[in-house]
Amino acid sequence: MKRLYFKPNDKVVKEGDLGDCAYIVETGSLEVS
């Protein structure tokens, strides 16, 4: 499994992107809009 790190306010995925992976949030939270 590859570990990725994101900064506050980074966009992880946007509408229309192909779904080729899954994300597990270890720390913090995500906002869906």
Automatic annotation (TrEMBL):
Parts of the chain that traverse the membrane: none
SUPFAM superfamilies: cAMP-binding domain-like (SSF51206)
Domain Cyclic nucleotide-binding, first and last residues per copy: 1-33
PROSITE patterns recorded: CNMP_BINDING_3
Name of the protein in question: Cyclic nucleotide-binding domain-containing protein
Taxonomy of the source species: unclassified sequences, metagenomes, ecological metagenomes
